[in-house]
Structure formats: C-alpha cells, structure tokens
Amino acid sequence: MKREINEECGVFGIYSATNQDVAGVVYTGLYALQHRGQESCGIAVCSGGRIGLHKDVGLVGEVFTQKALDTINQGKMAIGHVRYGTTGSNDRDNAQPILTKHPACTMALVHNGNLVNALVLRRELESKGAIFNTTSDTEMISHIIAGCCIKYGDTEKAVEKAMEILEGAYSIILMFCDRIIAIRDKRGFRPLCYGKTPSGDYIIASESCALDSVNAYHIRDILPGEMVIFDENGVRSNTTHCNQSTPSPCIFEYIYFARPDSVLEGKSVQQARINAGKFLAMEHPVEADIVIGVPDSGIDGAIGYAARSGIPYGIGFIKNKYIGRTFIAPVQSAREQMVRIKLNPITRTVKGKRVVMIDDSIVRGTTMAYIVGLLRDAGAIEIHVRITSPPFLHPCYYGTDIDSAGKLIASNHSIEEICKIIGADSLGYLNKDYLPLLISDDIDHPICRACFDGNYPTALYGGESKDKFEC
Ligand code: SF4
C-alpha cells in the first residue's frame, strides 16, 4: 500500500540434482518476493545445456500463465527475478533474467542492487565496442562477466575477477550450463541467503520468506563478498573477497523493504520493527487512547509502541488487498485516488479518540497528509504521527528509489513544518542513533544508513549512476 519508496528487485534460484519442474518452484518463490518489485518478472531454466527464458512486464501471476510455464518448466536449474523500474524504463527489455550467449559463456543472470561505478564501466565498455540493449546496469555486469569468462576460460575464476571491478550493491544469481553461482557485494547491502528442501534441492533467495514458500529450510545468509557455487559436487564457498570492506547491510530492509516473516542476518524483520516502535514510545511519548499502524509495515511498530507505552493497540485501517500498488500510478492525482481505494479507516476504532498512528517513513508528505485527513474524517480528535525511521535527507544509490534531496520533504522542511503540512497534532521520528539497536545490542553495529545521515559506505563516482542506470 502507498509505496512511495521501492526496492528495485528480488532474486530467486534453484539447483536440483534431478530434472524436475524447476520453473514451478521459481514461480512460487517469486510470488513470495513480489513485494520487492511489481513491474516485470522473468524465469530462465537450464535444460540439456540450453537456457530457456520467459519474461515480461507485469506481476508474477500475470506473466506466468500455465502456458508460459509449460514452455520452460523442466530442468535441473532455474533462476527468476521480480523488478521495479523507475518511470520510462519499465519495459520488457529491462526485465530480467539477462541472457548471454557466447561460445565461451552461456549464462543467465539476475541482480538486486545498483552499481555505483556503472557509468564509468559502461563508458569503458562502449569505448571498446560493446553494444547494450538496455539501460540496466545488470546487462553491463553480464558483459563484464562474459569478458572475464573469455579471458580466464573458467566461470568461477571469471566471476571472482569480475567482483574486483564491480563497486556498489549487488546480490546476484548466475546460472551457467553446469552450475549456479550466487554472489553478494563486499558490503552486503542487499540480502541474499540459501537453503535446502527436504528432497535435497538448493534454493537461493533474496529473503528467507521465499525459502519458506517452497518448504526449504534456511541454511545461512551468503556473506558479504562471498561466492557460493552450486554444482554436481554440492555446495562450495569462495571467500576471496570477504573481509575486504566493513559490511554495511541496508537498515531500511528491516524497517520497510523486507517482509516481516523474513529473517535477515539472523535477525527477525518483525522484531526490528517492534523494537522501533518501543524506541519511539521512549523518545516521543504522548497521552493517547489508542495506537494504530498504517498497513503493512507500520503494524509491528504500532504493536511495539503500544507494548512500551501501555496505550492499547487497535486495528485502525483496513487495506484493500485486491488492487495494485499505489506507486504504479504514474502521476500524483492518480496516486492519491488509488490511496482512497486502498485504505479505509475503521471509524469505530478511532472516532472520538486521541490516536497515535505509526508508519515507516515520510517521503514527499502527500500520502501521509492524505492518511491523516482520512483519520480526521473518521472522527479522530487528536492524531500523533510517529515514524519508525529517521527523516530521509539523502538519496540512495544502492538499489532503491529514495529520491534526490530536493524531492524529500525532510530536506526542505523542519519537523514542525512537516507536522503542519501533514495536518498532525504532533510528529516524532526515530532517532538515528537507535538504528543499529533495531537489530543488535551494539550501537556500533555496522549498517548502511546513508539516506538518513549522508555517510555513504562507498565512493559515489560523482553520483551519476543513479540517474543513468537501474537494477
Ligand atoms: Fe538502505 Fe538507505 Fe543505505 Fe539505501 S542509503 S542502502 S535505503 S540504508
């Protein structure tokens, strides 16, 4: 609902010892990852040394009809992708997997994240004659890995060498004709984990909720900088690039992007959100009659706030589950109309009450103003907004669409001004010092929080890549 910020991708893969309906397994896994991208999706299956591919614009359930699945379903390996693309690039060409066919390297690739040196690398490749079909940095990663395959004649060596060149955020699954290689960037910005089904198939996924969806048990997260190779000999880890940089996993995965039933780096996403609500209750207490959360990611924060404050928790909104996501609407007027259809306050819960309303973030402020208006119309006498993240002040360059500072309301207004703009009686954000404590007892626990404090864990190469390339 009301997604003003979007994760740009989710990835999923299976390596099986036997021929089976691997496309069906990936289809199920992608369904579980649909929250990470809703504009396009695709599945590639490797069978008998050939890679079949189907991808298109649309949700998983729309793109993969039974007929579409039947064209690619049998094999030992398959990978899949869900993607969110920014305006102007939500076309089929940018959908993934990206397929590369070369005598030295036939492979399919799926990617979550954004390279920060994409523009520099692309110019270099183009100057050497490379031709690109898409505006995506993922195609460029394919070029680089294929180039390394030609040079080194060995896929594992090629990927290891390519990782020396790639800078920024990438969780990638590569499918060659004899193996799958899963890699995660040196700082581990975006999540990636693997597990195993009772029948012995290995599953790789952006989030553990996708392992659950295919009845795989979670083995572990792939380490920052690690390569994990799945082939006929089993599973092998290559840690050549591990421990080269301080890890900086994205804290906003816990606050908003990931599903609450997922566990990232051994930490429950739901518990992190409950913790955020508890910290908010400590930092921004208020006298009120009820605490409610904006579905979905505000709900656990509301439960935490209620538990710490002693104010009763209530269900304040009903979300219409049978409609596409707000952000798909291309213009603001359509977006607001969609919010009206998607979210309805429960008058019985809020009428005549002093309400604490928890949400995960405020981006432009327009959606929040509308939601506060809905509560007023439903009869709430006071509305105290509490946000389970600090104010957004800086763009993200690591695979989300948190926008340029000029479009972020907190970059241009004080908290008092924002409170007035959204029409609330009070407004409180999570203190950024609490961010590491959402997932650890240690305030120095390494995380990325650059969109809140501007301390980017990598060089930005002029910051150009955000405007030029997408996941
Ligand atoms: Fe996550 Fe923000 Fe860092 Fe982007 S800048 S990776 S959204 S914490």
List the helices and strands and how they pair.
Elements: E1 9-21, H1 22-32, E2 40-47, E3 50-57, H2 60-63, H3 66-70, E4 74-83, E5 98-102, E6 105-112, H4 118-127, H5 137-152, H6 155-165, E7 171-176, E8 180-184, E9 193-196, E10 202-205, H7 208-213, E11 217-221, E12 227-231, E13 234-238, H8 252-257, E14 263-264, E15 267-268, H9 269-283, E16 290-293, H10 299-309, E17 317-319, H11 332-342, E18 343-345, H12 347-350, E19 354-359, H13 366-377, E20 382-387, H14 409-412, H15 415-422, E21 426-429, H16 450-453, H17 465-468
Bound molecules: iron/sulfur cluster.
Iron/sulfur cluster binds next to helix 16.
3D architecture notes:
With 471 residues, the protein is an alpha+beta fold. The chain contains 17 helices and 21 strands. It has helices at 22-32, 60-63, 66-70, 118-127, 137-152, 155-165, 208-213, 252-257, 269-283, 299-309, 332-342, 347-350, 366-377, 409-412, 415-422, 450-453, 465-468; strands at residues 9-21, 40-47, 50-57, 74-83, 98-102, 105-112, 171-176, 180-184, 193-196, 202-205, 217-221, 227-231, 234-238, 263-264, 267-268, 290-293, 317-319, 343-345, 354-359, 382-387, 426-429. The strands form five sheets. A seven-stranded antiparallel β-sheet has the order 3-2-4-1-10-9-11. Strands 5-6-7-8-12-13 form a six-stranded antiparallel β-sheet, covered by helices on one side. A hairpin with a 2-residue loop joins strand 2 and strand 3 (50-57). Helix 4 crosses helix 5, helix 5 (137-152) crosses helix 6 (155-165) and helix 9 (269-283) packs across helix 10 (299-309). The structure holds iron/sulfur cluster. Residues 189, 250-252, 396, 398, 400, 402, 448-451 line the site of iron/sulfur cluster. Iron/sulfur cluster (SF4) is lined by residues 189, 250-252, 396, 398, 400, 402, 448-451.
